[in-house]
Each structure stands twice: as C-alpha cells, then as structure tokens.
Amino acid sequence: MRALVVYAHPVPESFGAAVRDTVVAALGEAGHDVRLVDLNAIGFNPVMSADERRHHFDQGVNEVPVADQIEHIKWCEMLVFVYPTWWYGLPAILKGWLDRVWVPHVAFLMPAHEGQNIRPAMQHIRRIVVVTTCGANWWLSKWVGEPGRRTLLRGIRTLAHPLCKTLYLAHYKMDSSTPESRARYLTKVRKRLARL
C-alpha cells in the first residue's frame, strides 16, 4: 500500500522521533511504499488565514495554499499519524494540517441539496493508523474521551473507504515512562505494523 506517515513533534531528539523512525522502518520492511511528512521540519503553518477561510468552499482556490499536502493525501491508501497526545488531543500543528488540507471538494463533497450530509471523497484510503504517546494513564484518557483519537479514527475515518480499517497504538503514562516501557512500546509498534 501507499502509506503516508504524518508526523508532528517539534523536538528532533524526542522519543516521538524514535517512534516515527520505527513506524517508517516497519512499514518499509512490510513492503509498503512510504512517504513521510514531518510537519514541524517542513515548517508547516497550521494557521488558516482569513483569505483561506473566505475561499474554504471555493473548489480549486481552496487547494492552492496547500497543494503539496493535498497531493500527498490523494496519493496514499494508508494514513499513519504519529504524534504526542497533549491535553488529550492533537498537537496544534496537526489540527491545523487537518483544517487547512482536508478541504471541501478534496476530502469531502458538499451536500447537493438541503437536508443532505457531506459525502466522503477519500475512499482510496483503506487504513488509518494512530501511533501516539499520552502523558495520562489509560482510564483517565478514556474518561476525558480521547478527542484526538476520535477526530482521526471517527472524523477522518468517515471520509475514507467504507471498509477502512483502523489501528490505535498508544504508550500511556508517558510522563512516568521508563527506558524499558519505551522499548516495549517500540517493539509493539514494530510488530503490529509488520502485520499490515
């Protein structure tokens, strides 16, 4: 499969970088064609300008500011998000990427008539994977509702193929993690992605 890895972490030497490298290597070893988009490294601007918002629904015009990123999401069959969960949600740069790149007429089609819903336009995406770290423990993350997980595995998933499969791999209690727990997590990620 053509796998797009979208990575969001501002610190190059973070544990997140080790997770990213593990993900890219495991997917490559499994025979997938892998592209990496490191949002911080490319200096992606997550802020939607007033002009972008004014033209958000204007087909073609809304694609111009982020044409390179739109090409990536049109190319992929598998979407893999690698990021730290902060405040139970997505880092701002990743949320901004969704806001600016997943635009009408690209990611979804607007309703044709009153009373209709939007229609998915990313049906070439057949798998969505989230690989994340969470400072909180499992039960607290669940209690809060895991908004980042829901955004990607429910919200973005609705725009993908009807039979799109999902996978969520999290290292909880990252704030009190040990070298051993982090090594176990990387092994788990490698093994799970090798089976995709």
UniProtKB/TrEMBL annotation:
InterPro entries: Flavodoxin_fold, Flavoprotein-like_sf, NAD(P)H_dehydrogenase_qn
Record flagged with keyword NADP: no
Pfam families from the UniProt entry: Flavodoxin_2
Name of the protein: Putative NADPH-quinone reductase
Domain Flavodoxin-like fold: 1-160
Similarity comment: family membership: Belongs to the NAD(P)H dehydrogenase (quinone) family.
GO CC term (a single one): cytosol
GO molecular function: NAD(P)H dehydrogenase (quinone) activity
Alphabetically ordered keywords of this record: Oxidoreductase
